[in-house]
Specification:
With about 375 residues, this protein is an alpha+beta fold. Helices cover about 40% and strands about 25% of the residues. The protein contains 10 helices and 17 strands. The strands form 5 sheets. It has a 4-stranded antiparallel β-sheet. It has a 4-stranded antiparallel β-sheet with strand order 10-17-12-15, with no helix packed on it. Strands 11-16-13-14 form a 4-stranded antiparallel β-sheet. A hairpin with a 2-residue loop joins strand 8 and strand 9 (about 120-125). Helix 1 packs antiparallel against helix 8 (about 210-225) and helix 5 packs antiparallel against helix 6. The chain is elongated and about 80 Å long. The relative contact order is 0.10. Mean pLDDT is about 80; it is low at about 1-30.
């Protein structure tokens, strides 16, 4: 069965190779952030700052809807010229704005974190222009200039206070970079981060760069199929169906996933769970496995594993690591959809075998 899955994925991969990254460098070229209608207010503020002679920086959070209405403006941090923060907030709350646009269409700009430095009466952004560097990095990767691309990616990663949309673009670049180097495990870690953000549901749909993220999620599906993470793969395909239905690659994956469901619904399959080195410096690694079947066995547990936990819609239960034996687990249907949360040292893990219904003997009634 594994060879069949790999063959199907290989055929899909030939198509994806042609379409995955063609539009990557277009990322946010058409996104224009909101700006004040009256630029004279900014000039007056600059004259005031020059008169005061102060220096400092402020960090503010703003939300402006698609009509240009200011919904929120709050101070996150400030240093040096403290009076500057008060005046900026006062002026900002009085200002009128042109809304942000995406492809010329007004959209909301929510949760923007902006840092401003004032020196000698002049204002400038604390951060470099993100999307200009993003496009430079994408172009470098497309041209095979991996060292230059990686250097630009590192510059983007060093930018302070990125918003979620910028972070998604950065993750997409990292997926592209590692796939080009054939480092599929590293690419999967970043693709999975994108997936977790998208399924959280708290980002605005109209601002998601779908043409950038669709190939990222497609690469996640291919990795999961190749590694027999069937439950994860089917939920990845569902996300493509919900958010990326207009893309050709999504239609191919959705069709493939439907056939896959028919193929494995009555099959037993095993996969090796190996915890990956975390992206950020933390003391442990973790992985979430979406279970396909409701019956499973765990074997070949490697040292360094801390906890296993079943997280279901209607229940949560720790899975003991000692004396697992051959009995396995049968998850009650009343628990709903379940994931297996795995925490441990990088490199630790086990073999997970998922079994079709009625393979295991149910525990005796008590």
């Amino acid at each position: 069965m594994r060879q069949g899955c790999l063959f199907s994925c290989f055929a899909l991969g030939l198509v994806f190779a042609q379409v995955c990254w063609v539009s990557a460098i277009q990322a946010e070229a058409e996104y224009v952030p909101p700006k004040p209608v009256d630029q004279e207010d900014q000039k007056a503020l600059s004259r005031w700052a020059a008169y005061k002679g102060g220096e400092g920086w402020v960090l503010v959070l703003s939300s402006i809807d698609a009509r240009g209405e200011l919904l929120e403006l709050s101070l996150l941090d400030a240093t040096g010229f403290r009076e500057l923060a008060d005046v900026l907030l006062e002026n900002g709350r009085k200002a009128r704005f042109e809304p942000a646009t995406l492809d010329g269409v007004p959209v909301a700009d929510m949760g923007r974190i902006e840092g401003l430095i004032v020196k000698n009466g002049r204002f400038r952004s604390m951060r470099p222009k993100f999307y200009g560097r993003y496009r430079d990095a994408a172009e470098a990767l497309n041209e095979g200039k991996m060292e230059a691309g990686r250097a630009l990616i590192d510059e983007l990663a060093a930018i302070e206070y990125p918003n979620f949309y910028e972070q998604l673009h950065l993750e997409a670049l990292l997926v592209r970079y590692f796939l080009t180097l054939n480092e599929k495990v590293q690419a999967y870690k970043h693709a999975d981060r994108v997936y977790r953000v998208l399924v959280s549901g708290f980002l605005e749909e109209e601002r998601l760069p779908l043409h950038v993220l669709a190939p990222v999620i497609a690469s996640k599906y291919l990795y999961e199929i190749d590694n027999l993470l069937m439950g994860n793969a089917l939920r990845t395909a569902k996300l493509l169906e919900l958010k990326f239905a207009d893309f050709e690659m999504s239609a191919q994956i959705i069709e493939h996933a439907a056939g896959l469901n028919e193929m494995v619904s009555e099959k037993q399959f095993s996969t090796t769970i190996s915890l990956l080195e975390p992206i950020y410096p933390v003391d442990y690694a973790f992985q979430i496995v979406d279970l396909y079947h409701r019956e499973f066995q765990i074997s070949d547990i490697r040292p360094g594993l801390h906890t296993l936990q079943l997280d279901c819609e209607e229940g949560r239960k720790g899975v003991p690591l000692e004396n697992m034996g051959d009995d396995g687990w049968i998850v009650p249907r009343t628990w709903g959809r379940c994931t297996l949360s795995v925490v441990g040292e990088p490199g630790s893990g086990f073999t997970l075998t998922e079994l079709p219904d009625f393979t295991l003997e149910p525990p005796p009634a008590t």
